[in-house]
Amino acid sequence: MAGGRREPVRVGAGLGALLCALHVQAACRDTAVTQELLKEGFHRDLLVKVELGEDAGGCAVAARMHLPPGIYVDPYELATLQQHNLTKAVLIPDVIDVEAPEYLARALLLLLFLEPDARCSRCFRAAVPVHARYHRPAKGTEEALVVLESPEVLLCCCHSHLSAECWEPAEVDAPCSSDDTGPCQWHSTKHRPAYEELMLRVPVGLREHSSLVCALTLLTTGLCSGLILAAACKYGHFSQ
After folding, report:
1. CB atoms inside a 10 Å sphere around CB 131
2. Which of 67, 161, 143, 1 is nearest to 78 (CA)?
């Protein structure tokens, strides 16, 4: 009998927790994040779109992206774009080797500040130029895949209050905008959007062609060197 009396209490507590979770989930509407690669080839534009689950009036909205070694943002190009107010972003580290191949490069962290979309009060978007790095020759395939993880949406509301049920403090060492140097508390959503990956296909050489490429390179180098030497001997003026 005692056990039978406790069972409704357990059921009631579980039902209450479920209803509470459903209430929080309903109050915290999902945030939609999409990313798209524009243009073709090694030099592309990465477009990020965010639709918040609630109005973020007066808040700065950013996307924190982890870029793998196979892709990079040129810090010099980024500085030029920011001077003309074409994009706003923080690149970590801010000094990188743009000539390094993929297997000698390291991952980057990009904090991209998003601008409001005039067509939607809860929508934000921004684009930044990205560049693919050269990869090692592959065996049996002419493409290498670079996987771009889904960005993390961040909000910085210095003059507004965010719901503790929906947002939690995030460890971001960056100001509220690229123009401001003061610290600001960023927040990330507790209810993460659906995880989506973006694939970038980078052309690579075939490992089976290595011998042919080396032979043609040596032959071309020797031929050009011989022509230069012959022209120097024929038309050059050498002091006695």
Report:
1. 14
2. 67
Q: Which residue has the tokens 């993880």?
A: 149
Mean of the per-residue pLDDT values for the chain? 79
Longest Cα separation, the chain: 120
Whether 48 and 73 have beta carbons less than 8 Å apart is answered as: no
The encoded tokens of residue 88 equal 């706003």
pLDDT of residue 188: 80
| Cα–Cα dist 237/240, whole Å | 9
How far is 232 from 211, CA to CA, in rounded Å?
A: 32
- 49 forms bridges with which residues in the sheet? 34, 125
Beta strand extents in 28-184 (DSSP E only): 32-38, 43-51, 60-67, 71-72, 89-92, 108-113, 115-116, 123-132, 143-148, 152-156, 167-170
The whole model's pTM is what? 0.73
Residue type, 61: V
What element of type H or E holds 207? none
3-state secondary structure of 156: strand
Question: What is the pLDDT at residue 177?
Answer: 65
In the three-class reduction of DSSP (H, G, I as helix; E, B as strand; rest coil), residue 128 is classed as: strand
Q: How far apart are CA 95 and CA 112, in angstroms?
A: 17
Name the pairing type of β-strands 32-38 and 152-156. unpaired
Angstrom distances, CA of residue 124 to CA of 5, 168, 208, 231: 54, 20, 46, 62
Structure tokens at 3: 């056990």
